[in-house]
Request: fold
Amino acid sequence: MKVTIAKGANEEEAAAIAEALAQNFRNEVEVYVRGADEPAAIADGSDLPEPEVEPEADDFGPTEREEQLWAEIEEIDLGGPEKYKQRLPDQGKLFVRDRMKLWFDDGLLFEDGKFAQFDADDKLPADGLITGAAEFEDREVHFMANDFTVKAGSMARHGVEKFLRMQQRALKSGKPVLYLMDSSGGRIDQQTGFFANREGIGKYYYNHSMLSGRVPQICVLYGPCIAGAAYTPVFADFTIMVEKMSAMAIASPRMVQMVTGEDISMEDLGGPAVHAKHTGSADLVARDEEHARELGAKLISYLPDNADEKPPRAEPKPPAKSPEGIDGMIPREPNRGYDMVDLIERIVDRDSFFELQAEYGKEIITAFARLDGRPVGIIANQPAHRAGAIFPKAAEKAAEFVWKCDAFDVPLLYLCDTPGFMAGSQVEKEGILEQGKKMIYATSSATVPKQSVVIRKAYGAGIYAMSGPAYDPEGVIGLPTGEIGIMGPEAAINAVYRNHLDAIEDPEERAKRTEELREEYRHDIDIHRMASEVVVDEIVPPSTLRQELVNRFNFYENVEKDLPSKKHGTIL
Reply:
């Protein structure tokens, strides 16, 4: 735009006119003084933002109709009868909308189905089930939350419809699902509307199955969840229970007594201790509502939104303990115990170790952690518990954890120090072969990057389950304390040379020969022999183990692995 102003105007006046016109027209403006060939001033407004325009004042405001709607919303948000809300503090519980405030702060994005059952003769706010979407820890999630003040959080036709819609939309959106459960189960007196229907409560578990491995499903229990309500936590990928508050069981204590005659409390039937120590159904146990939220926040930080994405990286941190101390903390004696967590904390980023199912199958540690900011899933034998031998529960726990990590593209780190799978009549009855095959199957089928470290003992099929050389890891490295063999020296000498040694009458000569055979055998299984035979890829100085793993996981970040063409395996 070119503009000519009166003769005699100075440069300051020309500049002011150019600036004003440029801002107004959002264009380049050249201002000429009449009679001049060159512009006295130039201003460019093409890159300026559009000015904010104040809305025109009018006489419209919230109408009586909108005010009525706000009143209805406020009424629904109050939940069920006040007398039920007053009981919650004695139970250590928050009212459901206060719970949502704790989890999401001001991050509630929207609700679906708020007006469910609004026109019913017996008004049931939101039909006792709140569903929608929210921001949680800078992530967008779908959620459902039972309102225990509305018929004890029980489920009926409209609430079931909302639940199903939320799950089906999660399949389409690819965003995580958060279940805040506090439900007494289905409303028996209304079962014809939702129980066996094609789109009824049974579809919950079909949708859980379809969502499994697609998006993370995290369930938090805030009360006794019985029968149908108890299946959501066991179908979820991760379940958090709250002490002195939550429980889950296939039937209530009253029903158990009626069917079996057993008189048992809800806590003993299905409380947190039962599912943390005996069934493995509880991944984490929280002290209270605030702690449950804290655990949920830590958990989701290791997981992607869905199976098509990479887990989120974090700012790298040095380990809590110095890697220089690794060699000194590992006993030379193969049968002497130590705490594997101490070693882990010398490898992973500070404050990143996050153990799951800590009280279940304690001979194996399953945990998320970070290496230089990268999430990894750790499967580690725990020599502090029964020498790190693999018992049925430990094998089951490891198999399920490997499966979940593989589903959500979390690389796997195996730390091996085990005498192998436990033997004996009791573990056979508990299914050591069945659970052991599941652990080996999960390790075999995992297509994420895997690194295996032989810390000390790697005896028997333990080296198979811990992703040894035959299981397609991207690396098997050993520490100088490592040993790989069919069995340990004591058992091997006893098995092979028992008759020979028994024939030696002199006790001193027998002891000397036993020690000689033991040392010969130990030489055969020593990690240096394994490296010499290229069974393992490398022996590394223990103080460099952290950096070695960081380098290897970085290098193999995008490794591609293919499984044979098939519908699915038959083992898990």
